[in-house]
């Protein structure tokens, strides 16, 4: 099951489970679409892989399968 991290690692934008602009790499590094396209040029700064849109977890499944609350914020790794 995906972790569904709550924010973008570059800009710290909130990315709730329903966010349609959340992007993840193969290791679930999580970024907003804006940072992926404008800062990262589609390449994860942590592992070098590409990104895919993060699936939206159906609201009915969130109670038994809650999203992560662990925020990872590393603007230095994003060319800032």
Written overview of the protein:
By secondary structure, the chain is low in regular secondary structure. It has a single domain, classed as 2-Layer Sandwich (Herpes Virus-1), CATH 3.30.40. Strands 2-1-3 form a 3-stranded antiparallel beta sheet. Strand 1 and strand 2 form a beta hairpin. The longest helix has 6 residues. It starts with 21 loop residues before the first strand and ends in an 18-residue tail after the last helix. The model has no long low-confidence stretch (mean pLDDT 95).
Quick structural summary:
By secondary structure, the protein is mostly loops. The protein has two helices and three strands. The mean pLDDT is 95.
How do the helices and strands line up, and which of them pair or pack?
Layout: E1 22-24, E2 30-32, H1 33-38, E3 52-53, H2 59-62
Antiparallel strand pairs: 1-2, 1-3
Strand order of the largest sheet: 2-1-3
Q: How many beta-strand elements?
A: 3
State the helix count. 2
**Main sheet: strands, sense, barrel:** 3 strands, antiparallel
Q: Which structural category do the helix and sheet elements fall into?
A: little secondary structure
CATH class: Alpha Beta
What characteristics describe this protein?
single chain; 80 residues; little secondary structure; Herpes Virus-1; 12% helix
């Amino acid at each position: 099951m995906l972790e569904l991290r709550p924010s973008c690692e570059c800009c710290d934008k909130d990315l709730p489970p329903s966010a349609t602009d959340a992007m993840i790499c193969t290791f679930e590094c999580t970024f907003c679409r804006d940072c992926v396209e404008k800062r990262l040029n589609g390449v994860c700064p942590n592992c070098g892989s590409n990104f895919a849109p993060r699936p939206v977890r159906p609201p009915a499944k969130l109670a038994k399968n809650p999203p992560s609350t662990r925020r990872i914020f590393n603007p230095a790794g994003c060319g800032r």
